[in-house]
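Moderator note: this is an archived Q&A kept for reference. The question asked for a predicted structure of one protein chain; the sequence and the answer are reproduced below.
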Amino acid sequence: QVQVAESGGGLVQAGGSLRLSCTASGLTFGDYTMAWFRQAPGKEREGVLCLNRGGGIASYLDSVTGRFTISRDNAKDTLYLQMNALKSEDTAMYYCAAVQARWCSSQIADYSYWGQGTQVTVSP
């Protein structure tokens, strides 16, 4: 049974940093492309960053360029999202998603497994 679980969210002041983690079990982590999505209140879920199984990165939000970094540790079956210089508009539920593919995608329907999300709240 595949399980995906995010952690590391919380309340932070604008300008601060957080590191989100996503652990996956029940699958061969290194065979999977992994991505971070987020969903703000009243808005649709959107892709943030994707890291494919070959190490290639795709960014889907100009607003996080230079501030957010995606990485993975295949030995620990863990995906990370380092978020720096946080802004109030980064407030959202952050989700981790996985698909057994070589490619990255910003489309929700392309991913097979999802975590329950971790809340990030940035105060002004």
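Archived answer notes: The chain has a mean pLDDT of 97.
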